[in-house]
Each structure stands twice: as C-alpha cells, then as structure tokens.
C-alpha cells in the first residue's frame, strides 16, 4: 500500500497542497513530493481548499464549466432583461445637423494656348485621353490623333467640362508690337475732387451733372494732353465705401494709379483702400494733392500722412511722384501730365496690334433701344465690327463699336475704351472678352461656361445656406429672434447693381438678415413687382425708372434713389423698423426709504405689513414695475409691488420729488436708507450708424 510507505512529512505536504490520488503517484522513491505538480485532482478536500481552487485564475476549466461558458455566448440562450412597467424616458428631439457638401478637390487653373496637342493637354490636366476624346465627340469636335493640335477655344471647353479653371496664354511671335497709350485709373476718397480733376484735364463738366455731386459709376475717357499732343486713357472710379469692387476692377486693368488726396482733408479710409488696391495689382502710384487753392490746405501734412502709410515719396528719397494741383483753378495740370508721361516712358508700354483682340469689361448696361451694351478696354490686338465674341457666359456678334463720345468707329486698338452692342445677354463687369472664329464656336463656348458657372453657383449656394443655418442655430441658442428682409435690386449698370447688393449685405445684423432675392439691370417691370409681392420683398431702384404700380401690387415698397447715401439710409431705417429688438430690464426710477410704518395683523404680530415711506429721487416709480431693494449697494430682494399710495390714495405711478407709501408682497425687512429701484422691461431696437467715410452698419 502506498499510504503505508508515506511518511509523516509527505502526508503533511500532500494535505497542504490538496490531497488526491494523483498526488500519490507523484511521490518520489524517498517518499517526498516533487516541487512542481502538473495537475491536482481534488476528490476529498475541505471547504477552504475548494474555495482556494475556485479563486485560482490559472486553474484549468472543467468540462461542465466550459459547457456553461459556451451556452452563455449563444444568442438564443442568452438571458433577457425582465420587462418593467415603467414608461420610456421622454428625451427632447434633437434634429440632425446638416452635413457640409463635399466639394472634392480644389479646382486647379490650367494654362491653355493656341496649337497645343491633346497629349499635352492631358498631361496638364491629369485626365486620360479616352475621357477627353469622349468629351470632344459629345461637343461635335473631331481629332484624328492625340498628337493633332487643338484650338484654344476647344482646350478651354475641355478644361471646363472636367471642372478646371482656364487661363489663356497668347503668344506674340510674328506679331506687330507697337507702343500704346497708358491706362490711368483715378482713385481716392469720396469728394476729394477726382472727377473735377478729370474735367479740368479734358475741359468738360461731368461732375456738375452727377447725382449728389459724387461719382457712382466707372467712367472711361481718352484725354488728349495739350502739352505733348499724346493721349491717355483715364478710368474714373467712385470714392464711396460701397463701391470697393469697382475700385478693385479699375486697379486690375490699369497701368498707373493717380491717387487724389484733398489738401484740406488728408488721408481718409478710401484713400488707404485705394493704396491697398494699387499694391495688390502691383501698379505704380502718382499722388495728386488736390484743392491746394483752399485756405485750410496743408500739402505737407498730407505728405507726412502718406509717408506714415508706407508711400515712399520723392521728398524722402522714394520713387513716388507727388504733384500739387487745383482742379478749380486748373493749376499744376501740366506737372501732372509730365509725371504721368514720365512714368509711362519708364514702363515702356507696348502691345500686340494685329490678331484677335483681348479686352476687359469695365461696365455693362441695358439700353431700351439697343439692348445689352458693354464698355470695354482693349488690352491687345484689334477689335473689329462683325467679330463673334464670348464675354463671360454671354456671346454675340458685334454690330457696332462706338467711342466714349458716342461716335461710331470700325475698330478699336489697344488701350482704347469703346462701347459695343450686339450681345445676346448682359455680361458681368470684370469679364474678359474672347474673339472666336464662328457663331457655332461662340455658342459652344458660351454653353460650356454657363454649365460651369451653374455648378459653381450651386456649390456656393449650398455652402452659404449651410453656413447661414448654422449661424441661425447659434443665434437662436443665444436668444436672438432673427427676421428676414428680402430685397430686389434694379440698377442702370451691372457694376452698380453688384455694388448696391454688396452694400446692402453689409447691413446684416443679428436681428435682421438682408436677403438679395434678385439683382438685375434695367427699369422696374411688372414681373419684378409680381415677384416682390410673392416673396414679400421690397424693390430698390437705383438710377432707373419705375413702372406704374397697379392696385394689385400696392403693398410692394419701391425705393427710388440716385444717391447711394440716401439709399443706404432708407434701407437702414427699414431694417431698424423690422427688427424685433431685444427685451431688457431698465431702471425707470429710484426711491429712498425715509421711514417705516408697521401695520399689525389681527391674530399675530407676524401677520403684519411693513409700509416703506419713500421719496422718489430719480425717474418715476410705478406699481406694475419690478421692484429691487438695495442696501449699501447690495441687492437684497426683487419682487412685485403689492400697493403704492400717495396721500392715502392708490396711484399707478409717482414722479420725481414726490413722497409715497410702498408695500412689497414678500418683503417686510425695510430699513431707513434703503434704495428701491423700479425696473421696467423695454425693447431695445438696433441703431443705424453712418460714418464720415460713407461706411454704414447696424449696431444692435
């Protein structure tokens, strides 16, 4: 028997580790247990040993335990929670947030030129030849080989169809290059004498015929210099703060910027903006200090202000010429002419004369008898009557070319401003003029640009709508109640309509959102009135005539204006009128406690009432207001007024300097010297603020 040969020490070790038959088989020849046991089977063990075995994490699982564990993991045998009779918790509904539209990769600009091959175009755009060939088949163009040359119009169409922007490159090889007149843009602050200076140069009186005495359009003129006999093309830009885009377009097409600063006014906000536009366009500046004939003129102060803004004038060793002039007395004009011609000679201005023309739209308007008209400046080439052109998304065949005096001409050479008609629609100010070879090519290019323009417009509209909804959600969380003011803008020219729309958008406030429903050129028509009535909008007619308003459209508000100041003032007042306002508590009056009178209750003393004998020190105290008790500047209580009497009579309010008795509903602990404030709830409307520079804003 193994138990008989088991020593006392071995038995103690066996019971210490847990007794079992497997333990006996692991005994050594000398009766001792080995140091490591592979497994121990517990047949007869104490409760303490079984508990230790159960808590051992390294022990192997039994067959029954493994079976139970596998059953728990199965879905159909899983234990379900018991149903309770409690109703589900009511959680507030939170609408899902709108996700931003994925615009994909940023559009890249592809440079195209005449005679490039399809293979080279594929390398520049990264598009496969098969895709480009399918696009050419869809538009009706045939290319026999990928190494054949394609025209610049077809290359632009391909780039637009695959979603890329286009930059046309024109070569001057084999072309006739000749000197051209400089294009000079006159910029500066409003009412600093820009148009008067141009009138003095060309002996006209345009400034006297302008509405309000300020320029509100971009004008292009050719002025012959009397001293040298040469000609200079001038662009006159508005100086009001609302016409920032017009000044930017003028700086983009110009060669030299004439910065007009009034000697009696100095550097103003639009002067600084004109300097920024000239620097961004990388064009030289010639400073003309005007109104030097006035008594308060100080040209030296103007020079110091310009130097402080980083303009390196010649007096301090810079290269910016400064000329002191007077448009009223026509003094200093010869020096200004000399400075402009000297700057043009240093720039060595030349342009290609032959070949298709490249031009830039300065302004566009709609004439009742002639249709859409565009004022353009030719940059290179020669524009001839009868050419097919594409301007932005519009196309047409030029029927007539007129100079800025209105005289018909057959062609337009570089740096020459002209007005063309024959377009199918009204282009946008700032569009490039592209001459194509046929009407078919013009239609094809116009349709491709229209498709791309619509895609870009819809993407921008979605992004703007999501941004506006997020802004409204944030404002609604802050407690703002925002209303919408729909507006239809009609103007005489395209650039002014865009400027008026941008100026109205600057009047947006946390309480009123100005929504430009439509912006167009031409007189107010019946369709405009019908649309305004349908969307409950007002119509802003700037420098245009209005039609007769029928009784059916009598509810539509139409604002006719010729001066931008008056227009912004009227719309600002309308915004203030429509604004819901912000409800606030305001101190209507203050009263000081001079004495305390206690009225005992019928049953207990605690049921008594304390009457505060007060004197109104400021404002008025009325019974319906909210009362606030202050002691040593600390608010002790806020509540309603239970009774207000003067000379034993109930009154609704007590004015300044009068005495009264006041009882508050839940407050009896009055002391002499306490201050009682009477608060009233008022609706605070926003304010329309206009600065001296012409900038306007709505302050809430």
Automatic annotation (TrEMBL):
One of its GO terms (cellular component) is mitochondrion. CDD domains: IF2_eIF5B (cd01887), IF2_mtIF2_II (cd03702), mtIF2_IVc (cd03692). It holds the Pfam family IF-2. It is found in: Mitochondrion. This is Translation initiation factor IF-2, mitochondrial. One of the essential components for the initiation of protein synthesis. Protects formylmethionyl-tRNA from spontaneous hydrolysis and promotes its binding to the 30S ribosomal subunits. Also involved in the hydrolysis of GTP during the formation of the 70S ribosomal complex. Residues 64-81 have a biased composition (Basic residues). Keywords: GTP-binding, Initiation factor, Mitochondrion, Nucleotide-binding, Protein biosynthesis, Transit peptide. Residues 48-94 are annotated as: Disordered. The lineage of its organism: Eukaryota, Viridiplantae, Streptophyta, Embryophyta, Tracheophyta. Its main location: mitochondrion. It comes from the Eukaryota. The keyword Ligase does not apply. One of its GO terms (molecular function) is translation initiation factor activity. NCBIfam families: IF-2, small_GTP. The keyword Mitochondrion applies. Belongs to the TRAFAC class translation factor GTPase superfamily. Classic translation factor GTPase family. IF-2 subfamily. InterPro entries: EF-G-like_DII, IF2_II, P-loop_NTPase, Small_GTP-bd, T_Tr_GTP-bd_dom, TF_IF2_bacterial-like, TIF_IF2, TIF_IF2_dom3. Residues 179-350 form the Tr-type G domain. Residues 52-63 have a biased composition (Basic and acidic residues).
């Amino acid at each position: 028997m193994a138990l008989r040969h088991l020593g006392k020490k071995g038995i103690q070790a066996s019971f210490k580790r847990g007794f079992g038959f497997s333990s006996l088989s692991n005994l050594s020849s000398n009766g001792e247990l080995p140091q490591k046991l592979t497994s121990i089977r517990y047949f007869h063990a104490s409760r303490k040993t079984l508990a230790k075995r159960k808590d051992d994490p390294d022990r192997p699982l039994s067959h029954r335990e493994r079976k139970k564990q596998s059953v728990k993991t199965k879905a159909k045998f899983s234990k379900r929670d018991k149903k309770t009779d409690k109703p589900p918790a009511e959680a507030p509904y939170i609408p899902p947030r709108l996700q931003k539209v994925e615009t994909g990769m940023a559009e890249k600009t592809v440079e195209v030129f005449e005679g490039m091959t399809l293979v080279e175009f594929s390398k520049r755009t990264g598009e496969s030849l098969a895709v480009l060939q399918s696009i050419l088949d869809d538009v009706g163009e045939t290319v026999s080989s990928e190494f054949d040359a394609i025209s610049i119009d077809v290359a632009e169409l391909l780039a637009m169809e695959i979603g890329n922007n286009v930059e046309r490159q024109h070569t001057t090889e084999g072309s006739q290059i000749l000197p051209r007149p400089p294009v000079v843009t006159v910029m500066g602050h409003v009412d600093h004498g820009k148009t008067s200076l141009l009138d003095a140069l060309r002996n006209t009186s345009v400034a006297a015929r302008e509405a309000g005495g300020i320029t509100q359009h971009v004008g292009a003129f050719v002025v012959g210099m009397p001293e040298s006999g040469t000609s200079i093309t001038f662009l006159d830009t508005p100086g009001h703060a609302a016409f920032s885009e017009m000044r930017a377009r003028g700086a983009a097409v110009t060669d030299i910027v004439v910065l007009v600063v009034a000697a009696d006014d100095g550097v103003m906000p639009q002067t600084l903006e004109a300097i920024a536009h000239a620097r961004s366009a990388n064009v030289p500046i010639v400073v003309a200090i005007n109104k030097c004939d006035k008594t308060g003129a100080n040209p030296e102060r103007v020079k110091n202000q310009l130097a402080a803004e980083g303009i390196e004038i010649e007096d301090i060793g810079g290269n910016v010429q400064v000329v002191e002039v007077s448009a009223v007395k026509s003094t200093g004009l010869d020096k200004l002419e000399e400075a402009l011609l000297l700057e043009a000679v240093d720039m060595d201005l030349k342009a290609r004369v032959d070949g298709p023309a490249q031009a830039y739209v300065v302004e566009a308007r709609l004439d009742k008898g002639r249709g859409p008209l565009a004022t353009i400046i030719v940059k290179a080439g020669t524009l001839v009557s009868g050419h097919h052109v594409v301007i932005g998304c519009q196309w047409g065949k030029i029927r007539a070319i007129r100079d800025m005096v209105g005289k018909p001409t057959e062609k337009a050479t570089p740096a020459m401003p002209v007005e063309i008609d024959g377009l199918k629609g009204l282009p946008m100010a700032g569009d490039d003029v592209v001459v194509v070879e046929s009407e078919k090519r013009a239609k094809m290019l116009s349709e491709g640009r229209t498709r791309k323009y619509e895609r870009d417009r819809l993407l921008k509209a979605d992004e703007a709508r999501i941004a506006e909804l997020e802004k409204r959600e944030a404002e609604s969380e802050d407690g703002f109640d925002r209303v919408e003011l729909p507006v239809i803008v009609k103007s005489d020219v395209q650039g002014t309509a865009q400027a008026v729309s941008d100026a109205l958008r600057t009047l947006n406030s946390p309480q009123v959102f100005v929504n430009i429903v439509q912006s167009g050129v031409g007189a107010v028509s019946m369709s405009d009135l019908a649309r305004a009535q349908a969307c409950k909008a007002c119509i802003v007619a700037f420098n245009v005539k209005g039609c007769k308003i029928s009784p059916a459209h009598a509810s539509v508000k139409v604002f006719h204006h010729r001066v931008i100041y008056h227009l912004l003032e009227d719309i600002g007042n309308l915004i203030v009128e429509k604004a819901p306002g912000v409800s606030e508590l305001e101190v209507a009056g203050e009263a000081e406690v001079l004495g305390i009178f206690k009225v005992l209750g019928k049953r207990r003393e605690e049921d008594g009432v304390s009457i505060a004998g007060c004197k109104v020190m400021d404002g008025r105290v009325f019974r319906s207001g909210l009362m606030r008790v202050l002691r040593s500047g600390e608010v002790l209580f806020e509540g309603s007024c239970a009774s207000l009497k003067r000379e034993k009579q109930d009154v609704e309010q007590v004015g300044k300097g009068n005495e009264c008795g006041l009882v508050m509903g839940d407050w009896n602990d009055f002391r002499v010297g306490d201050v009682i404030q009477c608060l009233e709830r008022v609706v605070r409307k926003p304010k329309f603020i206009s600065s001296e520079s012409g900038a306007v804003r709505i302050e809430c």
